[in-house]
Write the structure tokens for this entry.
Amino acid sequence: MSTSGFHTRLKTDADVDIRATYMELQQLEGIATAVRRDILRMVAAVNSGHPGGSLGCTDFMVALYFDIMRRKLDGDGKPVFDMNGHDEDLFFLSNGHISPVFYSVLARAGYFPISELATFRKLDSRLQGHPATAEHIPGVRIASGSLGQGLSVACGAAYAKKLNGDDKHVYVLMGDGEQQEGQIWEAAQFAPNKKLGNLTAIIDLNHAQIDGTTQNVNDNRDLAAKYRAFGWFVDEMEGNDISDVIRTLRKSQEDPDVPTMILMHTEMGFGVEYMVGNYKWHGTAPNADQLQQALNGLPLSIGVTDY
Amino acid sequence: MKKYEYTDKKDTRSGFGAGIAELGRSNPNVIALTADLAGSLKLETFIKEYPERFVQCGIAEANMIGVSAGLTIGGKIPFATTFANFATGRVYDQIRQSVAYSNKNVKICASHAGLTLGEDGATHQILEDLGMMKMLPNMTVINPCDYNQTKAATIAIAEHDGPVYLRFGRPVIPVFTPADQQFEIGKAWHVNEGDAVSIFCTGHLVWEAIKAGEILSEQGIEADIVNIHTIKPLDEEAILASVRKTGCAVSAEEHMLNGGLGDSVAQVLARHFPAPLEYVGVHDTFGESGTPDQLMQKYGLTADKIVEQVKKVMARK
């Protein structure tokens, strides 16, 4: 991570390096492991929360916050948070139930102390079950949890940046089950029509939701074709490969008038062998034995600690 | 009874249109959004003068609310406009999560509220909107009574930092409040001094209350008429001061009794100064097609009905 100012971003395909600019890939992977341990310990501690999607989106979230996003940092490299987010990249989490990964990444990026992760879902905590602004937790700009609303909010934030002459970017993450919400498709029409080229939306394509596979519950069918027909630039990436996430996010901003939709292939529960690909872990916390088994498979890197 | 006269009749939605046009000139952060109802919301002047600050969302109200919440993050003051039905009931969860719970500076501006929307019928005549909006924490709820008050309220809410629901309507009604008024959110307007009965009125029923006050005055009954334009936060002091003087009250609104102004008044009286209260409003029923005047007659939202309720409540003192 740079020590001051903004991360700069490479704009064209030719400039793309598969390796992170400011951190070695190995370092990013070390952070991702620590985040996975945070997620597991956070949900196990309160026997509630959503580990599956959180683990699946960990590599993406680490790449986004530690490499991709141009964030305001102070002289010590600590993030400076203000609600307006003028002149910096913004991220919105639409599928708010994966709050564990959001909170862990925000804490490890310096928005608040990692010790606060121990308060997740507890009374009087700033870390509500689903992200909220009411407790003024740095890094969170909108409440989410009731699905389907984040893309609209991101459209509004991107629209404001254009009006403000702010050349920074807006990112939003959604679930694939969430694509069943009608409001998504209202926003899907809006963004290309308003030429929101400063918006990149990512769909976590893990094919799983609470009641089963997305295919069985209410099939998304061909999301790429749908978004292309709505006027988006559509790309795909391997969400559990940090290099591929970085490479894809760096190259997808070339047309100033066209928003980008990235279909991100992930595995729910990635990093914990017994959770991978099983939708039962969408919203179930591991018990003590399961937690230990999972942590044993996720050894911390040197110099990285648990909260 | 204090004399109220009017030289002009206008719709309150045009007061909103005039107010937002003025805001366009005075506040560069004000953005107008609509969901395919720019004409009905009287946005023509704003759009003509500030096309870059107008966002046409199409028939997609849920997205309009979310986009509005997002615009506030960039420091904008979005005025999201459509019919009251589509501005509340249709998008309640979007308002709840992205606006109220997130405490975003979104102004939800709703026209064609209540029965006076008229011929379109019950699908469009929302009578529950004040109740839904006042239940939301962080939400300010305002229901102005004529063109001038609506214009002043529109200008005032831009200065208030937080979510606001501003409700107005379609019919052309007398303009009887001053053109140069300052609108103070949460501060009731004392329409007439009296000691026999309190009449708490809002929106289109304020003019009816004035007419009722004249009828009562001729019969020697002087009503204390208070315009509660801000449903939330409620001016409890004004309500209590009036009922302590009169000992009984009637509420009057173009809204369902459940959840309306009368409900709010009843809560204040029950807690602080129990006194007889009667209501003028719609009783647990949907509306129907008809002219605004016919509907107001049929559903009992008239000066005569207010007089009737005054007699009833005074007998209970």
Remarks:
- Chain A has one domain: 17-296.
- Chain A touches chain B through 38 residues (CB under 8 Å).
- The domain at 17-296 of chain A is CATH 3.40.50.970 (Rossmann fold).
- The two ends of chain A are 20 Å apart (CA to CA).
